[in-house]
Specification:
The complex is a heterodimer of chains A (113) and B (114). By secondary structure, chain A is mainly β. In chain A, 0% of the residues lie in helices and 52% in strands. With 114 residues, chain B is an all-beta fold. Chain B has no helices and 11 strands. In chain B, strands 2, 4, 5, 6, 9, 10 and 11 form a 7-stranded mixed β-sheet that branches. A 4-stranded antiparallel β-sheet of chain B has the order 1-3-8-7, with no helix packed on it. In chain B, strand 7 and strand 8 form a beta hairpin. Chain B starts with a strand and ends with a strand. The chains are: A mainly beta (113), B mainly beta (114).
């Protein structure tokens, strides 16, 4: 019930294409869903986050789509660039007001020129 | 504002030793969380401190402990190191007001246990 399942494990996209990463969860009480980007040798950096009362959130080229009934959420990267090549993690926060995140396994994205 | 800083960045220890890692949160942040990142298990929550009190704990053995000081700086300690403790240890800080769910990660401490 505390798991977050992320797919695909790896993704290759051509420059200018759309990258789509999916996550699914079981616990309907999760109340915050962030996406993080991590480059080798660096800590994860917050990209964008959404709460379950919103179905979509867009920030620049990054969009989260959230389907509460299906218990799924996804990250869309429009006009993907080689600089977007990194590992992406989805996460979910259990309710309770504390800062514990449950992470998906990660997706390694490679954007080819 | 300066970001989250972690020291040291790299550590090599041998089995049975103990280690202390340090984390300085973003100025004004009172919540500090610790995570372990390994290729096999991914990112796993260790514990969270807020105003010097541990208020959340993950499923790790008692060899993993932490504390937070009055200036919000935090340390985590791993005693009796095992080979499987080799990992990137990340700390994250969160603001006390506004988007309190947002966690800002440091660069991590890479621990290698030989």
């Amino acid at each position: 019930q505390q798991q977050v399942k992320q797919s695909p494990q790896s993704l290759i996209v051509q420059k200018g294409g759309i990258s789509i990463i999916n996550c699914a969860y079981e616990n309907t009480a999760f109340d915050y869903f962030p996406w993080y980007q991590q480059f080798p040798g660096k800590g994860p950096a917050l990209l964008i986050a959404i709460r379950p009362d919103v179905s979509e959130k867009k920030e620049g080229r990054f969009t989260i789509s959230f389907n509460k009934s299906a218990k799924q959420f996804s990250l869309h990267i429009m006009d993907s660039q080689p600089g977007d090549s990194a590992t992406y993690f989805c996460a979910a926060k259990p309710p309770g007001g504390y800062n514990k995140l449950i992470f998906g396994a990660g997706t390694r994205l490679a954007v080819h020129p | 504002k300066a970001g989250v800083t972690q020291t040291p960045r790299y550590l090599i220890k041998t089995r049975g030793q103990q280690v202390t890692l340090s984390c300085s949160p973003i100025s004004g942040h009172r919540s500090v969380s610790w995570y372990q990142q390994t290729p096999g298990q991914g990112l796993q929550f260790l514990f969270e401190y807020f105003s010097e009190t541990q208020r959340n704990k993950g499923n790790f053995p008692g060899r993993f402990s932490g504390r937070q000081f009055s200036n919000s700086r935090s340390e985590m300690n791993v005693s009796t190191l095992e080979l499987g403790d080799s990992a990137l240890y990340l700390c994250a800080s969160s603001p006390s007001s506004g988007n309190t769910d947002t966690q800002y990660f440091g660069p991590g401490t890479r621990l290698t246990v030989l």
